[in-house]
Design goal:
Helix content: 25-40%
Largest sheet: 4 strands, mixed
Oligomer: single chain
Number of strands: 11
Number of helices: 6
Order of helices and strands: EEEEEEEEEHHEHEHHH
Length: 213
């Protein structure tokens, strides 16, 4: 069977990139047990090649990387040979693009040194994070001299970390206790807090006299 769906297995979610939603066609997810009668399930929607529930329920994945959240993916084609009942052979054929999508991080001088990019394809699509504390004039121009296809340039230093911490503190101040608990729950469990559990948390906070709205 072929299916374009977000499939989970006993609550466990497959790996997804930043652009992929869990809702497809009005359904948030379909459990892998639904496909128990099928020898092989060819899934579409997620970009990372992977299996979910069992090895014969597979996302082939996308042939190319479409965002930097996929930079560490190994793209491939899934070759499936079907014999008799439950006789299945699965092979993956790696795909090597003309230009890869990569992320590198460090001081500008270090990233531009020949030793840093020796043996790599400098024409790859790059996300570069500079860690220099000093202001760099025309940083993007300097980066382009070695990496002509840089797609994104960020900074990670004391100044940017201080700014991000200030923004995060402001956002926390604007959130209610229930919203903060929902974020914490999702961070710990990789699933959203459902309506029933949210109701329980809200009720407990109200009993404790907290601000739950």
């Amino acid at each position: 069977i072929l299916a374009h769906q977000f499939v989970t297995s006993a609550g466990k979610e497959p790996l997804r990139s930043e652009s992929e939603s869990v809702s497809v066609g009005g359904l948030e997810n379909v459990d892998a047990s639904v496909f128990a009668a099928f020898d092989y399930v060819a899934l579409g929607h997620l970009h990372a090649p992977q299996w979910i529930g069992r090895e014969t329920i597979r996302y082939a994945g996308s042939p190319l990387k479409y965002s930097f959240s996929e930079a560490r993916h190994t793209k491939s084609v899934t070759l499936v040979e079907l014999g008799g009942k439950n006789e299945i052979r699965i092979d993956t054929i790696p795909l090597e693009p003309l230009r890869d999508m990569r992320e590198i991080k460090g001081p500008l001088r270090e990233l531009l040194s020949p030793s840093a990019h020796a043996g790599t394809n400098t024409e790859d699509y790059m996300h570069i994070t500079l860690t220099d504390e000093d202001e760099i004039i025309d940083a993007i121009g300097k980066v382009h001299t070695v990496y002509p296809n840089v797609m994104r340039l960020d900074y990670d230093n004391q100044r940017t970390r201080s700014m991000n911490a200030g923004i995060a503190a402001q956002e926390i101040h604007l959130q209610s206790p229930v919203q903060l608990f929902q974020e914490f729950y999702q961070l710990q469990n990789n699933v959203e807090l459902d309506d029933e559990k949210t109701g329980i948390v809200t009720e407990l906070l109200e009993k404790l006299g907290g601000r739950s709205a």
